[in-house]
Write a structure and sequence with these properties.
The chain has 293 residues and is an all-alpha fold. Helices cover 75% and strands 0% of the residues.
């Protein structure tokens, strides 16, 4: 009997392995192998175009901290990530709560909020750059005609946050809506019978019950914020000056505009490690809240 069970278990394990093998192969080819190749290139002086490639060890990594534009790009990206994560989660959860509460016309509102995320970030950036730079100022006229959120270093971050949140808040709203549907209505009814107010119910019932969805949204939005590129390319091009140059754009410009592929690879390796560390810390802290809830 034990031999038969062992044979069945081995057959089941082989079946599981066969099911995950294609995805595992794609992950290795699409993620692990490029990272390994990038690390190898980061140890050389390759410019990205010539066939010559000399080994320089950790020289590119030592140069990273002395790169002035890196600090500017990191500062902008970090500000974008913090603003984007807070605003997008708060707005998505707020819309989800309104719609789940039986808001009139909720299906239409849900569709309107969700549709922008179906469009390409490249198209979104181009359209909004025209709207904020030409269309709206001309429509408003007067002093407002010379104001554009995307051409002033002081307001370009706010402009990009406006565009990015307009596009993606609907996507995360659906995740929060799905999580809210799993909260037992009896908990809300009991709380209301005891005289609990909205904020108490939100903090003591709703948030603890949807912590898994919050973990998914916070971590995913954070990673997406650090990887922002297409929107900036078409909306601002990293300008004015380098005021809106993200880390990804900085690395891209190093590799292709400055012809410093090896130095760009070193920057990307450090960025990958940093991003992995941020994700691990976020998941650990939020999963702890899930357990406590």
């Amino acid at each position: 009997m034990q031999s038969i069970q062992g044979s069945l278990e081995a057959k089941k394990n082989r079946m599981y392995l066969a099911l995950i093998a294609p995805s595992l192969a794609l992950y290795i080819l699409g993620v692990i192998l490029p990272i390994a190749m990038g690390f190898r290139i980061s140890l050389t002086d390759w410019n990205g175009f010539t066939p010559t490639m000399n080994y320089v060890g950790l020289e590119n990594y030592r140069r990273i901290l002395s790169a002035g534009r890196l600090a500017n790009s990191f500062g902008f990206t970090l500000s974008f990530v913090l603003g984007n994560t807070v605003i997008q989660n708060a707005a998505a959860l707020g819309f989800a709560l309104l719609i789940s509460a039986g808001l009139r016309g909720r299906n239409f509102i849900k569709t309107v909020i969700f549709v922008p995320c179906l469009l390409s970030p490249i198209l979104i950036g181009f359209l909004w750059s025209k709207l904020l730079g030409t269309v709206y100022p001309q429509m408003l006229g007067g002093k407002l005609a010379s104001i554009s959120l995307l051409t002033d270093p002081k307001t370009v971050l706010a402009g990009l946050l406006l565009i990015n949140n307009w596009q993606w808040v609907g996507y995360w709203m659906l995740i929060y809506l799905a999580a809210l549907q799993g909260v037992p209505e009896e908990l809300y009814e009991s709380a209301r019978m005891e005289g609990a107010r909205f904020w108490y119910i939100l903090g003591k019932i709703t948030v603890p019950m949807i912590m898994q969805a919050i973990t998914i949204c916070v971590v995913s939005i954070t990673i997406g914020g650090f990887q922002v590129y297409e929107l900036i390319v078409t909306a601002t091009g990293g300008g004015p000056g380098f005021a809106s140059e993200s880390i990804i754009m900085y690395i891209y410009n190093l590799a292709f505009s400055a012809e410093k592929a090896a130095f760009a690879s070193a920057n990307s390796m450090v960025f990958v490690v940093f991003l992995a560390g941020v994700s691990i810390i976020q998941i650990a802290l939020l999963r702890k809240r899930e357990v406590e809830s």
